[in-house]
User: What shape does this take?
Amino acid sequence: MSGAKRRKGAVLVTGASRGIGRGIAVELATAGHSVVINYRSNETAAQETIERCRAAAHQARESDPALDEEPRFVAVQADIASAEDRHRLVEESFTAFGSISALINNAGIAPRLRLDITEATPESFFEVIETNLAGPYFLTQAVVRRWLEIGTAAEVRDAKQVVFVTSVSAETASPSRGEYAVAKAGLAMASKLWAARLATENVQVIEIRPGIMETDMTSAVKETYDDLIAGGLVPQKRWGYPEDVARICRAVVDGDFGFSTGSVIHADGGFHLSIL
Ligand code: NAP
Assistant: This one.
């Protein structure tokens, strides 16, 4: 490889305008990947992610001239809860880059209101399920169909990856946001299902399960969580940051977990441990 440029595939990251998704996009840019930056409505934030990706890629190339010279960063507005938008997102991603090498299912929402399970509404339940479960489930289907269609030529059969960003809520019972926990538990099963289906197709599927992360999603409950973390709820006694998830994504997309399909990688400071 000496002297040759290392060309890396383009990666579609959903919900990359802010928070964990932005962190993933910037980390992938640092590794030399092109990125499709999906967002739902915040175009300004998506453009800011593009700027950060460009700066990160530029800086990385200065220290590693063997990296691809021209990673590209494209923002695509699409609501992953909408079937029409999902198909347009896939079309635009494949049109921009010919194919994509990985899909990172990161976009997700919290319930608009944290309501006790005895009070929560069907509207909130279905909104969260459509976005956090049906969205990534069927977006993965749309991408996988394209991968399987474009077929058997050696270059398109290179290893590919699908990542599902779930949550400790997949296993932790929080009765004040049941719809979120049910969606994330379902998404953890979706990750296993896709891993089983794609094991012989050279596509690795990995679930990343974050704990309490400092993003816009948790800003309204920051002080509550500050106290819980200080009290030992998180064994490592700190908030998680987008980079904690982003560095795992980078390793997965770069093939470092090539024999680990179906695995769950915790990014929660030890929250999932049952400690006596
Ligand atoms: P965030 O800061 O609220 O950012 C959410 C991102 O998702 C934004 O880019 C947003 O786009 C996008 N998005 C929301 N709904 C969308 C939709 N229907 N279609 C397309 N994009 C959509 O959230 P975050 O904390 O980074 O969370 C990212 C993922 O990590 C989520 O799946 C979340 O459940 C999971 N997670 C978070 C935590 C935590 O403590 N924060 C913990 C565990 C797991 P716009 O900017 O356009 O609104």
Observations:
- The first strand starts at residue 10 and ends at 13.
